[in-house]
Design brief:
The chain is of the alpha/beta class. It has 13 helices and 19 strands. The strands form 4 sheets. It has an 8-stranded mixed sheet, sandwiched between helices. Bound molecules: ligand BES, manganese (II) ion and zinc ion (ZN).
């Protein structure tokens, strides 16, 4: 993975900082605010330069020369409206600002951390700075220049002691999210199920047990959904089973990730083929789970966490499953496969059943790029969440809010359950009717959790974006790694 810059904290006076770029926030309307005045005074400016093309809109950038100052330049970054200020606007502004100096400065400092003098705000700025410095260049022979190595956050002296810990946590979360980004953006010829499984082994240290089930083991274990999806590809499927077990865990949870390394749709081929364009990212759920696992030990997460990475390539090969095949999921449920492009629910059904049959598991959260219907309903900026348990639902919504990763609750209408009935099997993977596609997929998954508290995050919208946007880069975004981590960190507070 590409290196992220180191983030430091200082209580030194801004005028004493010897950096290539000083990043200074400006509120919308180009009004000053905390963190702005000090730099302006030093520059001999009475107020923010009023330019028709710089208004202080969130993420807007203006680079100014700073003659006679210790800083090579001042980079103004818009912070949006003062009354809309939040940890997330700070995170976003930090991301945009850092990206704007990524290839032109070696060192940067920012007073964004003076705007809201709290540890949460400090953490948000640090997250934004690191996440905004990410760029995928694993596959370029001549990587684009990247000079930025150090970012210093200027904090009030009252915060000095706590800021360091907040920044450390931010770094762990940001690096975990970038692991997921690398996996989502990696080309599918280089990252099939076997390569993904190898990567999991390589990335996870001694604190996580890794077990890899190959196709023979999947067959022995009755994982007929996973195998059915994988058989259309020359590259065999894998189930990667992870276990992080701290001493005296307060609970045990299972994270299940959809890991389709490429989704052609199978025999029910995607049409037009242009909708296959970002289907190398159909492993975004598994990437997020693996990314989260890389951080658990460092964060001293107090719960035992199991992970199930459901890895397969959905191809229309000679041995591919056919529409109308009937398959058998672990636990015995039979499924008529009416559409081979509804493959995510098939690979995950076995893993959900495996998690649910384990009495130690208190809650299951799955993450999947599952349905186009999810983003058609709520847009591409938010994950949809479905749950059979109100406490778990609330915990995830709270975690998403703290992470700045939008999550919207969608319903599991009981009335639609009938639409999953098949004439020849226990279930139909498509569901009759073409309404409520995201809900139908979620209702299908629910069949396999056997009443265990469960939530399903459909990330078909936010796993990918076409353009850089604040701290999120174009292509794989690594959403919702930080939500999962915030939830797991807080798990100690929820239990008991
Ligand atoms: N991986 C896709 C869903 C998807 C689409 C994710 C676009 C991200 C962006 C999934 O396997 C799929 O093909 N879903 C179908 C389900 C349908 C056949 C019931 C869909 O959404 O059209
Ligand atoms: Mn599909
Ligand atoms: Zn898919």
């Amino acid at each position: 993975m590409a290196e992220l810059p180191a983030v430091h904290v200082t209580t030194d006076a801004v005028g004493d900082l010897d950096v290539d770029a000083l990043i200074v926030p400006v509120f919308r309307g180009a009004i000053e605010g905390p963190g702005t005045d000090v730099a302006l005074r030093a520059l001999g400016l009475d107020d923010v330069p009023r330019q028709h093309d710089f208004r202080g809109k969130l993420g807007e950038i203006l680079h100014l020369a700073a003659p006679g100052q210790p800083w090579g330049r001042v980079t103004l970054v818009g912070l949006g409206r003062l009354d809309a200020l939040s940890d997330e606007t700070l995170r976003r502004a930090a991301g945009s600002a850092v990206r704007s100096v990524l290839a032109t400065a070696q060192t940067a400092a920012t007073t964004l951390t003076l705007v809201e003098g709290s540890t949460d705000a400090t953490r948000a700025v640090a997250e934004g700075a690191m996440l905004g410095a990410y760029r995928y260049d694993d596959t370029r022979s001549d990587p684009q220049p990247r000079t930025l190595t150090d970012v210093t956050l200027v904090v009030a002296s009252s915060l000095a002691d706590r800021a360091g810990a907040a920044v450390a946590r931010a770094g762990i979360h940001a690096r975990a999210q970038c692991v997921a980004r690398d996996i989502v953006t990696a080309p599918p010829n280089r990252l099939g199920p076997v390569e993904f499984a190898d990567l999991a082994v390589e990335l996870l240290g001694d604190d996580v047990e890794v077990e890899v089930w190959d196709e023979q083991r999947l067959a022995d274990e009755g994982c007929g959904g996973h195998l059915a999806v994988g058989r259309g590809s020359a590259r065999p499927p894998r189930l990667v089973r992870l276990r992080y077990a701290p001493a005296d865990p307060v609970a045990t949870v299972s994270l299940v990730g959809k890991g389709i390394t490429f989704d052609t749709g199978g025999i029910s081929l995607k049409r037009p083929s242009s909708i296959m364009d970002n289907m190398k990212g159909d492993l975004g759920g598994a990437a997020a789970v693996l990314g989260a696992f890389t951080a658990l030990a460092e964060l001293h997460v107090p719960v035992e966490v199991r992970g199930e990475l459901c890895l397969a390539e959905n191809m229309p090969g000679a041995d591919a499953q056919r529409p109308s095949d009937v398959i058998r999921i672990r636990g015995g449920t039979t499924v008529e496969v009416m559409n081979t492009d509804a493959e995510g629910r098939l690979v995950m059904a076995d893993a959900l059943a495996l998690s649910a049959e384990d009495d130690e598991v208190d809650a299951i959260v799955d993450v999947a790029t599952l349905t186009g219907a999810a983003f058609r309903a709520i847009g591409k900026r938010a994950s949809a969440v479905f749950a059979n348990d109100d406490d778990l639902l609330r915990q995830l919504l709270t975690a998403g809010d703290a992470a700045g990763e939008s999550i919207w609750h969608l319903p599991l209408w009981e009335d639609l359950r009938d639409n999953l009935e098949s004439d020849v099997a226990d279930l139909d993977n498509l569901g009759r009717g073409d309404e409520a596609g995201a809900t139908m997929a979620a209702l299908f998954l629910r069949e396999f959790v056997d009443g265990t508290p469960w939530a399903h995050l459909d990330i078909a919208g936010p796993f990918w974006q076409d353009e850089d946007r604040y701290h999120l880069p174009r292509h794989g975004t690594g959403v919702p790694v930080r939500t999962l981590l915030r939830w797991l960190e807080a798990a100690g507070d929820h239990s008991g």
